């Protein structure tokens, strides 16, 4: 059962996002989904997200690149979430293996 949503804000840095997504595979608790909230429609980002294989569901929320609108992208991710608990990180954050376990102890 999915208990939380990990929202990852992203902007054109596919290398960093790839490292973050790779760290998801090492999580000790997999009762969460991922929403990548991208501020800008960057084709390499779409290609990365569609190609990655993870043990949890992943969604990609995007919007046109009309200047810095990170919070607008995050709000769209909140609406798209199907869970009661949200955890927010940026594309440069590598997760400790127990990161989501800690957040799912509620």
In percent, how helical is the residue content? 25-40%
Give the averaged pLDDT, no decimals: 93
Oligomer: single chain
Q: Output the CATH topology.
A: Spore Coat Polysaccharide Biosynthesis Protein SpsA, Chain A
Radius of gyration of CA atoms, rounded to a whole number: 13 Å
What would you note in describing this structure?
This protein is α/β, with parallel strands linked by helices. The protein is built from 4 helices and 4 strands, in the order E-H-E-H-E-H-E-H. The chain has a 4-stranded parallel sheet, sandwiched between helices. Strand 2, helix 2 (43-51) and strand 3 (58-61) form a beta-alpha-beta unit.
Blueprint (SSEs and pairs):
Layout: E1 4-10, H1 14-24, E2 32-38, H2 43-51, E3 58-61, H3 70-80, E4 85-90, H4 99-103
Parallel strand pairs: 1-2, 1-4, 2-3
Concise structural overview:
This protein has about 110 residues and is an alpha/beta fold. The chain has helices at about 15-25, 45-50, 70-80, 100-105; strands at about 5-10, 30-40, 60, 85-90.
Using brief descriptors, characterize the structure shown.
4-stranded parallel sheet, Spore Coat Polysaccharide Biosynthesis Protein SpsA, Chain A, globular, alpha/beta, 34% helix, 106 residues
